[in-house]
Specification:
Mean pLDDT: 94
Order of helices and strands: EEEHEEEEEHHEHEHEHEHEHHEHEHE
Helix content: 25-40%
CATH topology of the largest domain: Quinone Oxidoreductase, Chain A, domain 1
Number of domains: 2
Low-confidence stretches: 335-341
Strand content: 25-35%
Length: 341
């Protein structure tokens, strides 16, 4: 099978197409013929080696984390899926990759594709959907009437997180450029800040939660807009000691990550708020619930651009520019979408 493979950490030149053997599913896995792959900023971070401390990867490795496709084979212990089912999933951190003609997926990570979505739209959902769910619902515990700040609202995670926060009943503020104002407003943003002309930390006050998607000084500023006992959930780091302990890392790594996040934790303590780092975990049950929200019309995927598989490297480069409005998706050659289970 054809796959886009990372040979070694480094620049884009380390990624190339290769012919690999079709993988075989383990007893608790399904084999999926891939129709579309949703790209995420973490794909380029993995290629550059930025995720090495957090993610074990055996090189050479197939690129990509999200997928939508058709089940063609199931392991002997699989009970939730059968050949012919249309599914979507993220396999981030589970080994393997999705920028290939076939991929194995752990049963617990997959969910049936929403019938209302084509494969391209479905492939755009898993990582951003699960990230929004786990950060806003589980970690920040957003409740109706609370105020949530989601910076970079026109990006892949922002377009989904705004809608999910509104589903939870929150009032949402976001930042974007003037050209994307109507997009984020259509997704439910209540307060829109043009980051070219305004500083969000000057405008916003007494927020309950921030979904931090931008590194650096933006995170320190985010802590300052929170009310007492509010929380910043960071998707961009730095990782902290609590994260290291949750991953079973040794004492040295726990100390290193404590050191990395010490400045932010100290400022958070001073302000009476909380800081934590979140790395999305694949979860098919949560993904199925997200699919139900999409079926109900509560959330819609936002697609910026679709690339054919033979232009997957160009798709990753386009995503790295940071100007995508919504998600970037790679579509495989398969076009038959008659299976909509």
């Amino acid at each position: 099978m054809k796959a886009l493979v990372l040979n070694r950490y480094g620049g884009p030149e380390q990624v190339m197409f290769a012919d690999l053997q079709r993988p075989l599913p383990k007893p608790d896995e399904i084999l999926v013929q891939i129709h579309a792959v949703g790209l995420n900023p973490v794909d380029n971070k993995i290629r550059a080696g930025e995720m090495k401390p957090l993610l074990r990867l055996q090189l050479p490795a197939t690129m990509g984390c999200d997928l939508a496709g058709i089940v063609v084979e199931v392991g002997e212990r699989v009970t939730r899926f059968k050949p012919g089912d249309a599914v979507f999933a993220s396999i981030f951190g589970l080994g393997g990759g999705t920028l290939a003609e076939f991929a194995v997926v752990a049963e617990h990570a997959a969910a049936l594709k929403p019938a209302c979505l084509d494969f391209v739209s479905a492939a755009s959902v898993p990582m951003v959907g699960l990230t929004a769910w786990q950060s806003l619902k589980e970690r920040a515990k957003v409740m109706p009437g609370q105020k949530v700040f989601i910076p970079a609202g026109s990006g892949g995670i922002g377009t989904f997180a705004i809608q999910f926060a509104k589903h939870l009943g929150a009032e949402v503020a976001t930042t974007t450029s003037a050209g994307n104002t109507e997009l984020v407003r259509s997704l439910g943003a209540d307060q829109i800040i043009d980051y070219h002309t305004q500083e969000f930390e000057v405008v916003l006050r007494d927020y309950d939660a921030v979904l931090s998607t931008l590194p650096g000084k933006s995170q320190q500023k985010s802590l300052q807009i929170l009310k007492s006992r509010g929380s910043v959930v960071s998707l961009v780091g730095p990782p902290d000691a609590a994260f290291a302990r949750s991953k079973g890392m040794n004492r040295f790594m726990v100390f290193v990550m404590w050191l990395l996040a010490h400045k932010l934790h100290r400022l958070a303590t001073k302000l009476g708020v909380e800081y934590s780092f979140l790395l999305m975990k694949p979860d098919g049950c949560q993904l199925a619930e997200i699919g139900e929200l999409i079926e109900a019309g509560s959330i819609r995927p936002v697609i910026d651009k679709v690339f054919p598989f033979d232009q997957a490297k160009e798709a990753l480069a386009y995503l790295a520019n940071g100007r995508a409005k919504g998600k970037v998706v790679v579509q495989m050659k398969q076009t038959n979408e008659s299976v909509t289970k």
